Amino acid sequence: MSSVKNGKAPEEYIKDFEENKGHPLKTFMALFKGYYHNLILAGIFFFIKHSPVLVFPIVTANIINLIIENKPGSLHSIIINAIVITALLILNLPMADLQMHFRSIAQRSVEAGLRKSLVYKIQQLSIPYQKDIETGRMQSKMIRDVEAVETLSDQVFSNMMSIITVSVAAFAVTAVKSLTVLVFFLLMGPVGAVVVYSFRKQIFRRNRTFRKEMESASGKVAEMVELVPVTRAHALEDEESRVMGEQIEKIAESGYQLDMVQTNFGAVSWICFQLFQVICLIFTARMALKGLIPAGDVVMYQSFFTQIVGQMNQLLNLIPILTKGLESVTSIGEILTADDIEEDNGKRILTSMNGDYDFKDVTYRYPDNTDPAVLNLNLHVNAGETVAFVGESGAGKS
Q: How far apart are the C-alpha atoms of 348 and 266, rounded to whole Å?
């Protein structure tokens, strides 16, 4: 089997971000263009791999009903049920390998493509833009944000696939067996929607604040390391430590607020769905007592409902992770869609260099500043010559 390939060019990833700007979910899905067939195959193999979890409640219910009925041929039917579930269990290993093979090719290719695209774009961005955004923030987007997108893809193509597979299969079997029980199962959907809606804005806001604080800290750390000689020369170590300490405390506070929102979100959703499990058990047991469903089906419905509740609870707990990942997609897009670039097309290519150079009528003005820091500078430097610029802060030395 082939391993990870080069995949899309950086220009294609940049185009994905530009076409879907302001829509991080659409952007995320567009990143996998060219790998959709891998994801479809991964989904098929995942369904086969996961089938024992779906079939086991049915087999258990069948065996319990056969024992209760105790008709001739019951033992034969029990053996057939056992053979079916055993065969599916044996298939789990090869299906797991195939599913991960196709999924990993898509994920790792996109991960590498994003990093290559960031490198490609950084080489095009103007030097003033790069100075303005700070090296630390660039590194944060290159490492932390790409890792967050990788985590997002893991959750979408692993946990989300499990949630969809289990939920659809459980609802389908229940619909065939009993429409009454299906209606009961569907009641928990609105509850989940209410829980998500009540926490969604808070989680999104806290994630964005935390990301901004982390990027700011990354930039300040890079600047601090670069200016250590100057800091020591002016005996400003304590002041620099104080400033960085305040930034670190802001990060800790933002992280604490985010942790508390996520914890409350998880606890509320867990309590809601555990209560529904208790109600489901009482509801199906009452139906069995009235003869509306076989006794063994109580176990099956309870197993399915437990799986659905587990998947819904998992989905709700994924919301903070998904929000963080989509925020990182937006963060990467800030670089890839930036239009402050330097075009080299048409510029003269140097065939040789002597080492001396000239500044002729050079003027430079800092962004958001009306007065030029340098005005009509003329300077000739001979090859091998060293020139030192001396002046107070803000005089235009840089």
A: 60
- Residue 220, token pair as written in the block: 């300040």
Residues 130-166 have pLDDT tens digits of: 666 666 666 666 777 888 888 888 888 877 788 888 8
Do residues 195 and 265 make contact, with C-beta atoms less than 8 angstroms apart?
Answer: yes
* 309 contacts 277 by C-beta, under 8 angstroms: yes
* Domains present along the chain, CATH in parentheses: 10-336 (1.20.1560.10), 355-398 (no CATH)
Asked if 128 and 166 touch (Cβ cutoff 8 Å), the reply is: no
Determine the distance from the C-alpha atom of residue 303 to the mean position of all C-alpha atoms in its chain, rounded to a whole number: 30
**Cα(311)–Cα(307) distance, integer angstroms:** 6
DSSP state of 145: I
Tokens of 328: 């990182």
Tokens standing for residue 236: 């400003």
Q: pLDDT tens for residues 223-239?
A: 777 777 777 777 777 88
Is the confidence at residue 7, as pLDDT, over 80?
Answer: no
Specify the pLDDT at position 41.
Answer: 92
Residue 288 C-beta-side C-alpha neighbours within 13 Å: 17
| Helix, strand, coil content of the chain in percent (nearest 5) | 75, 5, 20
C-alpha angle with apex 327: 326 to 328, nearest 5 degrees?
90
Gap between the Cα atoms of 106 and 2, Å rounded = 12
Rounded CA-CA distance 284/302 in Å is 8
pLDDT score at 183? 82
Q: What percent of the chain has pLDDT over 90?
A: 2
Contacts of 222 (CB under 8 A, 6+ apart): 134, 135, 136, 139
Report yes or no: 123 and 142 within 8 Å, Cβ to Cβ: no
Chain position carrying tokens 């080489």: 123
- Which long-range contacts does 344-352 make (Cβ < 8 Å, 24+ apart)? none
Strands (E), the chain: 357-364, 374-381
- pLDDT tens sequence across 171-222: 888 888 888 888 877 776 566 556 656 666 666 667 667 666 766 666 677 6
Residue 168: which of 46, 318, 280 has the closest Cα? Answer: 46
Q: How far apart are CA 46 and CA 98, in angstroms?
A: 8
Task: Tell me if 92 sits within 8 A of 49, measured CB to CB.
Answer: yes
